[in-house]
Amino acid sequence: xxxxxxxxxxxxxxxxxxxxxxxxxxxxxxxxxxxxxxxxxxxxxxxxxxxxxxxxxxxxxxxxxxxxxxxxxxxxxxxxxxxxxxxxxxxxxxxxxxxxxxxxxxxxxxxxxxxxxxxxxxxxxxxxxxxxxxxxxxxxxxxxxxxxxxxxxxxxxxxxxxxxxxxxxxxxxxxxxxxxxxxxxxxxxxxxxxxxxxxxxxxxxxxxxxxxxxxxxxxxxxxxxxxxxxxxxxxxxxxxxxxxxxxxxxxxxxxxxxxxxxxxxxxxxxxxxxxxxxxxxxxxxxxxxxxxxxxxxxxxxxxxxxxxxxxxxxxxxxxxxxxxxxxxxxxxxxxxxxxxxxxxxxxxxxxxxxxxxxxxxxxxxxxxxxxxxxxxxxxxxxxxxxxxxxxxxxxxxxxxxxxxxxxxxxxxxxxxxxxxxxxxxxxxxxxxxxxxxxxxxxxxxxxxxxxxxxxxxxxxxxxxxxxxxxxxxxxxxxxxxxxxxxxxxxx
Length: 491
Ligand SMILES: Cc1cc2nc3c(=O)[nH]c(=O)nc-3n(C[C@H](O)[C@H](O)[C@H](O)COP(=O)(O)O)c2cc1C
Ligand code: SF4
Description:
This protein has helices spanning 13-19, 87-97, 130-148, 184-190, 201-220, 235-240, 253-256, 258-270, 304-307, 321-332, 349-352, 369-386, 404-413, 424-428, 432-438, 453-459, 471-474, 477-486, and strands at 27-29, 35-37, 58-60, 63-65, 69-71, 103-104, 109-111, 155-161, 225-228, 275-281, 288-290, 296-298, 318-319, 337-341, 391-394, 419-422. Helix content is 34%, strand content 12%. A hairpin with a 2-residue loop joins β3 (58-60) and β4 (63-65). The site of iron/sulfur cluster has 14 residues, from α14 and α16.
């Protein structure tokens, strides 16, 4: 467990706000080159108002969205070997539908082809799986209708992915990488040589075709939009950092965005009317590893500009210049649905999912996890300020626990983000939005305490789920095994 005081013990909003202050000395470098300090967080109310901004509908891109909660993509490592949903997948999607959130961003990562799976139990969107994935969407939407009476103000997207260097399509413990750039740190860590597994330009040309084909199927299955995933170290995200890659997909930002541009033009031609979004790691840094006392430290002294998109420099400042250029180009391509996230769960989990307890392959937080939350909130706010016409869904709020609605109300109210994305919280407490918005209040026993068991379990080859808090998972044999990893002893 980390040394930082637990959120549940904070008594006042001002105590919380004092901890949500951005990293010491950090700045955001906007495209003008000017150093802007992090946007100060607005004051946080002691109680959030169920009749306030979080419950207000709004219209974006011709669609009405009924409130300000979004479900983030959350996979469960529980599809069948041929990439179809199982009963566990169906249960998770049903809970997404019944949550009360009016935007379901991506549902979970779905591979566009077999070799792009992050694990042998990831969904695949193929002709053979179309009807089962269409049925899965229907179950989720029906659940929403039966709980809330309408789906007119519900928007549902599907996240399309290729896992790139993190692909493990056939065996849970065997990487079959498809790399976009050379990364000596990750090569050493995973015992591979990127150059032996480098995707050629022709390979990427083919992958564009496969993304487009999957998007056509997503439209047939009834999804409102596809999320062309560019985050977490997977292929689309790694390409964005490929400054040293030769050829048409590397070098200039224009080249590094070619993959996205070509997918977009293929989708426009083959799935007219299908909306598109991008989930983007808006900043990143070099991989971290456990240092003294298991606290995370950078793994070497590589230059973040060689490996990371939106690099965090040595003094904690975030260079968002290319992030802004990327999102401006997205806007010009007609992509206005953006979900912000950061780093990667494999090599910078403290940036991506701030937690009190690290997952089994992680490290103790090198900073107060509140700083990790504040970093995502502030960087997203800067992007929203510069590109107000884009819809921004933010991530990383689960660490706020009991204070999530209060901070959500403050940041949405201040126009720093449009919607509050819920990741781990939704596994632990799927009906949090419904409970909050109905005025019933939160059930404290169900609030995600960031134990990271839902990450540790798949790292150890098991299904994911909220083993400590969801009664359905709590009684599974896996729950005991995962708990023993958290205690540091293993099974
Ligand atoms: C078990 C688990 C599964 C996840 N699956 C996905 C996924 O399929 N696609 C994705 O983009 N992010 C995925 N994420 C990341 C979350 O969407 C989210 O960014 C992260 O958990 C931080 O948000 P939170 O603080 O609300 O949890 C996953 C995270 C966890 C813990
Ligand atoms: S296992 Fe449950 S409590 Fe722990 S981080 Fe995941 S969702 Fe939260």
